[in-house]
Amino acid sequence: MNSTNKHILLTGGTGLIGGRLTEQLLEKGYRVSHLSRSAGTDARVTTYLWDLDKGEIDEHCIDGADIIVHLAGAGIADKPWTEKRKKELINSRVKSIELIYDLLRDKKHGVNAVISASAIGYYSDRGDELMYEERAPSNDFMSNCCMLWEDAVDKGNDLGLRVVKLRTGVVLDRGGALAKMEMPVKYFFGSPLGNGKQWIPWIHWQDVVDMYLFGIENESLAGVYNMVAPNPVTNKQLTIAIAKQLHKPLWLPNVPAFFLKLLLGEMSTLVLGSTKVSAQKIENAGFKFKFPGIEGALKEIYG
Question: How far apart, in Å, are the Cα atoms of 218 and each of 10, 188, 229?
Fold first, then answer.
């Protein structure tokens, strides 16, 4: 089936990645619709409404859909991890896919695949060990969140769907994580965090979008894949690379770990945790990275 008559339903379609993926799908001739909490503003995209708290979903969202791309989920670093927020982070990922699967069970449809985001938080803080997809998860909040998320997505197997889960690393784009990292560097306060030796499993946004397209177009692709560039860098290497692109000096000592723990609490694992992640499996499946190295990736973004 060629793209011109394939219909993709996106959750989280208005986010940073969702927006970019929508653009590229439309460019390639796909039909695209969104499942969203609010009415859409893009005339090229049909927007269906859902409300997770009320467990409501427009049952017409799956009409004519071939593939569902599940990107919905509250922002991990947007707010402090109170118990209430943790629940929200899990429910926004888990309850959302459950709502879709309930609908697929109840109604005739032509959906044959679900391609879902997951995160490298699945492995959490693992030092210098290289993480392959079959490694066991860690046992902290991030790992548990990712595990529950992936388990919920896997229920699609019982519905006879092709299920792909992409464990996303730190996505480098003009907004998001990179904006937070470059801020201190810009104002001459830049310095590595903690000992600076922790591994950052980064990926350029274009490779993220391309990998979703790869998952959509390769009907033999199934299971879990790491969504990270093949050349991980340490926090210190990344900080230096950002400073180089911004032509700023780095002269401050590292930001002490205890200060970050004080400031961020449990969330400090997001910046102090070390996760070195392998891209071997997706490369073996035939995926080609446009930005395998950090220099080239940052150059494109700051271009």
Answer: 18, 45, 20
